[in-house]
Amino acid sequence: MTSPPKVSRRRALALAAGALFATSLLPRSAALATAGARIPSRGFNLPGWLDRDGGPAAGAATLEKLRQAGFETIRLPVNGELVSSGGPATLRRIQNGIRDLVGLGFSVLLDMHPSGKLVAAFRNDPEAAGGQVLRAWTALRVVVADLPADWVYPELLNEPPMERTNWLALREQIAATLRATCPLHTLVWGPARFQGIWEIADTPPLADDNQIAAVHYYAPMAFTHQCENWDASPLARIANLPFPATRGTPAVSQVLSKLRATGDEEAANLVEDELSAPWTEARIAADFADVARWSATHGCPVMLNEFGVLNFCVDADSRESWVRAVRKAAEANHLAWTYWELDQGFGFIRSRQSVEGFDDSMIAALLGS
């Protein structure tokens, strides 16, 4: 897989068209490129496809509609265990999938997204787990090297599940592994352990001239993750919190009263802790101003490659208000962004295989003024 990417006439036309109007679609963060690279932005995450066997791809018509709406980047999670065990067939599947997306005019963030099993391995044997990630990138770098450096961006490891000092050492090893065959691709990395926006403050950039730091933002989680259904977290028992909100907001008082009426002090205390200061557009803007200062200090561009609100039990206006506030704060502080995610619990369309069921209000929150 070392031959030049084969691009059909249709895809070549799409690429040419994308090059002509990509600048008008990008926020101001595009100007923060290093080594002449573009900063991928105005995107969404597409999990559940190349990070598992038999995952469903998005339909071409759906992707074309999203591209026409103004989305220009797809963050594409891949599973290191699957890459290491799947052999050439898995690598071809990933390469062909990325080529299809680039052919439609999308930049692609190739996100090494560890499975729960690998996250557990980092807890039990960090050195062995790190070796597994390096082996995965050693296999995958052949795919990356054969894809255009100005359209495909390898992301070293999502939410690195280890202490900061251990991650900094592994980060340099992964970067060196990729640089051996991918000298021109822009490397994307995030801080340990959760890639949280607050964790970038004491994290130095890579020793590399072509990089983007990436952070996540889900604050306050009592709002963004209310009614989550995948573990026993008290977040699963919180519902109907609004945004913006303070402790004195009537809807918040009602939520607290209901939780305490059932004896759920854990969930009630979580809500109160997260609202110890008001959650408003101004609070969000201040968080992103902090990241902008880090970026300016280190001369390293930053992107927000995850943010979102579950749609399980939140009112639509609050959800849209939070998404718009975060997107605008990112853009105002020169951060590129990709939303988490397209068509699951945080999503904004009903199905990746249909052109129906697009949430126009959410799309406006992401792409509007």
UniProtKB/TrEMBL annotation:
<dbReference type="InterPro" id="IPR017853">
    <property type="entry name" value="GH"/>
</dbReference>
<keyword id="KW-0378">Hydrolase</keyword>
<keyword id="KW-0735">Signal-anchor</keyword>
<dbReference type="InterPro" id="IPR006311">
    <property type="entry name" value="TAT_signal"/>
</dbReference>
<keyword id="KW-0961">Cell wall biogenesis/degradation</keyword>
<protein>
    <recommendedName>
        <fullName>Exo-1,3-beta-glucanase D</fullName>
    </recommendedName>
</protein>
<feature type="domain" description="Glycoside hydrolase family 5">
    <location>
        <begin position="38"/>
        <end position="343"/>
    </location>
</feature>
<keyword id="KW-0472">Membrane</keyword>
<keyword id="KW-0326">Glycosidase</keyword>
<keyword id="KW-1003">Cell membrane</keyword>
<dbReference type="InterPro" id="IPR001547">
    <property type="entry name" value="Glyco_hydro_5"/>
</dbReference>
<dbReference type="GO" id="GO:0008810">
    <property type="term" value="F:cellulase activity"/>
</dbReference>
<comment type="function">
    <text>Glucosidase involved in the degradation of cellulosic biomass. Active on lichenan.</text>
</comment>
<keyword id="KW-0812">Transmembrane</keyword>
<keyword id="KW-1133">Transmembrane helix</keyword>
<dbReference type="InterPro" id="IPR050386">
    <property type="entry name" value="Glycosyl_hydrolase_5"/>
</dbReference>
<keyword id="KW-0325">Glycoprotein</keyword>
<comment type="similarity">
    <text>Belongs to the glycosyl hydrolase 5 (cellulase A) family.</text>
</comment>
<keyword id="KW-0732">Signal</keyword>
<feature type="signal peptide">
    <location>
        <begin position="1"/>
        <end position="30"/>
    </location>
</feature>
<dbReference type="Pfam" id="PF00150">
    <property type="entry name" value="Cellulase"/>
</dbReference>
